[in-house]
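Give me the fold.
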Amino acid sequence: MSRDALCSQLGYVFAQPQLLQRALTHRSHSQAHNERLEFLGDSVLNCVIAKHLYDSFPDLPEGDLSRLRSNLVNQQTLFILAQQLQMGELLLLGEGERKSAGFRRPSILADALEALFGAVFLDAGFEAAQKIVLGLYVPFIAQADVQTLGKDAKTLLQEYLQGKRLSLPKYTVLATQGEAHAQLFQVQCEIAQLKITTCGEGVSRRAAEQAAAEAAYLQLNFKP
């Protein structure tokens, strides 16, 4: 996987390649990292998705629009999209992050994709960034079920599997990091019959399970 291949998937070529380089650089690698671009890209992403939902669902009230946006603009959705783009292969990471498989970590991949949106915005403006965002997100939005907005990811995943007469997922704690008062949990969600395995992170085991379940649910419902 090369940067040219990434640009080909996006249908976009950077006039300032250094912006793409920065978007793919984690703070563990160098001081010229992607956190400021991530901040910018997050705002661009939220604006683009909010406008698209507003236009696409004219009868939905504000509360439902907000919940739908939150189900789309979150770490797990970004993580799935970044995986599909194979961005992990292109990330510039410090030695410690490389050894701990940071290129597969949901938070790092999600942040890099947001940084990519910010990089496109700086390179060519809002319309170019909007085109990239919608090109990746429209398939998710087209399949969004407004009836599921109030349900958490574990419930949605369980209902889906039960509806297909499949076994329920198995959740396994992979790692626990940090001090007792500030722990970070990493949990794996496995659906053996479908050969789906996802990971999630959270400040509690429950939060990590929800993140892993959401990743699995997105895989089940997203058709490239």
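Residues 35-56 form the longest helix (22 residues).
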